[in-house]
């Protein structure tokens, strides 16, 4: 059985601390899922690193689940809203405009 629509949030003062805590909890999650006979599809699992527009620089975090590197994305849909890594509304507004143009 698969655990669909699983969402985890992590925060920290540095990307390194976020990466460490996220990878630790991904190991804990893996154990819990295994004990409860559930699976998380690492190939479908994606993550996004949020940072305000005024925070320039690389936002690379390496997350690993059961030996597989997870995919970092710049835009992600969550509960019907499109979020971008810079916390702008542009992706969501563009999606809405595209949907409205179809109707």
The ordered string of helix (H) and strand (E) elements is HEEEEEEH
Overall pLDDT score: 91
Measured as a percent range, the helix fraction is 25-40%
Low-pLDDT residue intervals, each spanning 5 or more residues = none
Task: Specify the overall morphology.
Answer: flat
**Beta-strand residue percentage:** 15-25%
Based on helices, strands and strand pairing, what is the structural class? alpha+beta
What is Rg? Answer: 16 Å
Kindly report how far apart the N and C termini lie: 37 Å
Q: Could you tell me the number of beta strands? A: 6
Strand order of the largest sheet: 1-4
SS element count, helices: 2
Largest sheet: 2 strands, parallel
Protein name: Putative tick transposon
How would you characterize this protein structure?
- This is Putative tick transposon.
- It comes from Amblyomma aureolatum.
- With 103 residues, this protein is an alpha+beta fold.
- It has a domain at 15-74.
- Helix content is 33%, strand content 16%.
- It is built from 2 helices and 6 strands.
- The strands form 3 sheets. The chain has a two-stranded parallel ribbon. It has a two-stranded antiparallel sheet with strand order 2-3. The protein has a two-stranded antiparallel ribbon with strand order 5-6.
- Strand 5 and strand 6 (81-84) form a beta hairpin.
- It starts with 14 loop residues before the first helix and ends with a helix.
- The mean pLDDT is 91.
